Amino acid sequence: MHKLMVLYPAPTDPDHFRDYYVRKHLPLVARMPGLLEWRYSFEVTATQEPSPYFAVFEAEFADAAALAAARESPAGRETAADVANYATGGVVVIDYPMQNGTT
């Protein structure tokens, strides 16, 4: 499993961010090929206050190659280009392979 995580610092207009993100951006995300699951939250807290992030997004792909193919697809390029329409506070994008833990 390979995960994509997007961290969003506070935007200049939080209401616009929320509205645009849900109505316009997430439907673009949902079109990305190879996307297995995705989730997001506008309720980001941190152990030290205030949280450095306003929102978080996570997506799962089978592996790094599937994520790379999704990013390079027309839907992936359109999704990436759309970020400037709402993320006025910037964006941090990271990806990594997941390892299973044991107890």
From TrEMBL:
Gene3D superfamilies: 3.30.70.100. SUPFAM superfamilies: Dimeric alpha+beta barrel. It comes from the Bacteria. It holds the Pfam family EthD. Residues 11-88 form the EthD domain. This is EthD family reductase. It comes from Kribbella hippodromi. The lineage of its organism: Bacteria, Bacillati, Actinomycetota, Actinomycetes, Propionibacteriales.
